[in-house]
Structure formats: structure tokens, C-alpha cells
Amino acid sequence: MKLTDFPSDIRDLVIPAPAGEMLYRCLDCGNEHGINELLYVCPDCGSVMMLHETSNLAAKKADGPTWRKVLDHRRMLNIPALKGIYRYHEFLGPVVPLESVIYLGEGHTPVVEANSRLQELTGARFFFKNDGQNPSASFKDRGMASALSYINSLIQKGTMKEILAVCASTGDTSAAAALYASYLTEGIKSAVLLPQGKVTPQQLSQPLGNGAKVFEIPGVFDDCMKVVENLSSRYDVALLNSKNAWRILGQESYSFEIAQDFDYDMANMVVVVPIGNAGNITAVMNGFLKFLDAGIIETLPKIIGVQSHHANPVYRYYLEPDTAKREFKPVTVKPSVAQAAMIGNPVSMPRVINVVETYNRLSGQKNVFFMEVTEQAIMDSELIANRNGHIACTQGGETLAGLMEAVKQGLISSDETAVIDSTAHALKFSGFQETYFTGTFPPEFGITPNPELINAPEELKAEGLTEFPASGAPLTGEAFERFVRLSADAIAARLNLSRQT
């Protein structure tokens, strides 16, 4: 749709120009720092930071009802920079020029309602938000689009050059970082650190295919993260993990999309997300807070964070009801099929603590909850979801298991609707499905396959056949017709099909 066809009262607002004032704010000492260079931790105290837009740009430009109208009309534009997460430019990186925005098709992933059978099994009305339909097949593309767009703006200004983008990863971060870095043909290369043997072959192939330098490090993700932190503190690199506040900023788009897809009515809504490095749940809460502050939504949805019992430091922290007695303690993780959640010392834990407090206060009640689920429940839930028409990854199985646990605990009522996060595409974790079907999970996972969920191909050679087609040696004539007929009859017999009358 052309701009001239838009209503005159919003025409000047639809295409944004760079504006506003942004800075880093430390969550510990409160000191503020400019954004002219990339900072990952506070130079004064070493704590993590968050980005803030300090000029109150969104409120100055429009009120809530006008913003809804603007955002809904931006849907109809054919400007690539506004097709992705930067549809919400004023709420993400308003200082980033549209010509710096990298758009690879990320964002605006579908929300798909569960079928009646799955909703009945779960005990709640809910939707999967399929973030595995992002370009690199995970939600991490949201943050990379933000971080790399800002880096691109610095390159274009001439304030950065010859950048090495580096990250630690359990798979999805490395895939997204390598993809977006490879799109920038000038001035940037990428390197990723992966825990050796802890990344699926499908995930490993992605950064390799995009030309990143890949290093496999002994240990788990937390060990890789420490190496990357040390690297970024002593060498000139661009850190692309969630310590990078621009990464968290881009992931806020998940909340904006949910609000828009449900016509900005967040009353009786529940959003369920898995917790790994704690960046995503931070971003989800912060996104809804921004829309509330701008008057775009009037109610904050309930937030439920889910962790595996094999990696549950955030869940353990919130087990203590007395805020004065809470003490965060990292945990030693055990193997998990939800690999992105297999993090015992989440980088964004200070952000979670800060934002949860604000979220509950502005909700007027406790509105953020945390669930723990078993590895068995995660794997079973993934398979059940996909048997009912979804493309859920193991993290999607984790959120479904968390939803069922929340219903069981009475945290979700019959008049509430949930949106649960499938963070990556199911194909990234197909190896775990195969392991389940073959019953070959190592004991440390604690997973026993349910025979009702096991599926495997069946070899079929119909009785009475002595000749079979082969590559380079096809059957012909009567032999081929006999092969087709008897094979079809054998399939019909196994499936108990009735003949046509």
C-alpha cells in the first residue's frame, strides 16, 4: 500500500526517521553510559545493563489509540526495513536509520491455535507462537536483527570497522549470529564458541554454512560463555550474546507482535516462555511494559517462565516467597533435551530480578510465575504437540509442559488464553526424536519413551513378489503392474482399509 493512500492524520507518523535519545543504564550501580560504542557490562561496576530511550519519544509522537492505528497501517507497507521487528521502530531502536536496518525475514511469526484435542488434553485454550519460522529457524534472529542493525549503523557512520562478531551458543545463537553477520559483506566476520558434543548436527551445520569460524570448547554453555566474556573484555570484538543489550532489545518485538495479533487486548492473556540465559523472558516482560506505558495496551498479561529440573536456577530463586531472603545461586546443569535452556548461571538474571519487580508492581498483583518441569514431560510434550499439527522444538515442549503444570496448579483459569513459545524449528532437534523412538536416551536424561508416542518406518515387501524395482533397474510391463498392485494391497491390509464399492 502506498503512503498516499493512508489516512491523513497518521501519514506523517507511518515512516519513522531516526529520533530519540538512547543510553545504557546499569542495573546495579545505576550509572548511565552513551551508546556511541558497544558496551556489554557497566564500565564502573561490571554489571549487566539495559538500553533506555530517555526522551519519551513514543509518548511525544502519539497516544495509545493513534499508535495502534500507526502500527496496523505499517503492516501494509512494502518497505523492507519496516516489515520485520522495526515495524516497532520507536519502541526498539529509534536512533537506528531505516537504511541501516538488516531485514532477512525475521519477526511476525504466526500464532497457531492448538486443535480441540490438544486444548482438551492441556485444559486451557492456547496458541503456539512458532518462532522457529524465523530465517535461521529460531527466535534469536530477533535480537540479531537489532544488534547487527545497530552495528551496521556504526559501520556506516565510520565509528566501527573490521569487526569480529563473537558469541557462545548452545546452537541457535550461533546460527543467527553467523547468518546476520554474513549478510553484512563489508567490515564484519563472525566466530562462535560451542560446547563440544552439546549441539545438534543440524544446529552445527548452520554457522559452518554461513562461513563463521567455529570453535568447540570442552564443557557446557556456561564454560563457553566465560571464555567469550574474557575475550570481549580484553580484545576488540562485538559480543553477540544476551549480555549485549541490543540483543535483548530486539527480542522485545515478540511481545509487540502478540499484542498486535490479539488486537491489543491483553486482558485474560497468559504468555509462557522457556528460560535459558534469561534474556528472552526479560525482553518479553519489558516489551509489554513499554506498550503499557505508551497506552497501546491497558493490561499486562500474566507471564510464566519455565525451566527444566536439570537447569533451574531461576525457578529455585523464586521458590523463596520473601524477597528479602532470596539469594541467587548458580546450579550445575544436567543433560537436557531443551538445550537452549541448559544454562546454570544465566547472564540476564539481574535483568530478570529488576523487571519482574516492576512488572508485578505495575500489574497491581503478582503476575509473573515460574514453573519447573521434568525432561520426560518436555520430550513427551514436544511429541504430543507435533502429533497435533505443530512444529514445536524441545523448548516448545518445555513451554507446553509448563502450561500443563500451571493449569494443574490452578494458575490459569478457564477464561484465560495462553500463547506459548516454540523458540526454534522442530527439525533442529530431530535427533532427540529419533533417540526417543529408538529408546536410546542415556540414563542421565531420565527419559523413558512412551510406547504410544513411538513411531518408526515399516519396511514393506508384499508377499508373492519376487521382483522389485531398484535405482537404475526399474521394473516394466506386467512385473511393474504386479509390484504396484500387491504393494497397494499390502498397505491397505495393514491400515484396515475398506474396498470402494
UniProtKB/TrEMBL annotation:
Cofactors (names): pyridoxal 5'-phosphate
Entry keyword Amino-acid biosynthesis: yes
E.C. code: 4.2.3.1
Record keyword Amino-acid biosynthesis present: yes
Catalyzed reactions: O-phospho-L-homoserine + H2O = L-threonine + phosphate
Source taxon at top rank: Bacteria
Tryptophan synthase beta chain-like PALP domain: residues covered: 103-420
InterPro entries, A to Z: Ser/Thr_deHydtase_PyrdxlP-BS, Thr_synthase-like, Threonine_Synthase, TrpB-like_PALP, TrpB-like_PALP_sf
One Pfam family recorded for the sequence: PALP
Keywords from the UniProt entry: Amino-acid biosynthesis, Pyridoxal phosphate, Threonine biosynthesis
Pathway: Amino-acid biosynthesis; L-threonine biosynthesis; L-threonine from L-aspartate: step 5/5
Family the UniProt entry places it in: Belongs to the threonine synthase family.
Name by which UniProt lists this protein: Threonine synthase
Organism: Desulfoluna limicola
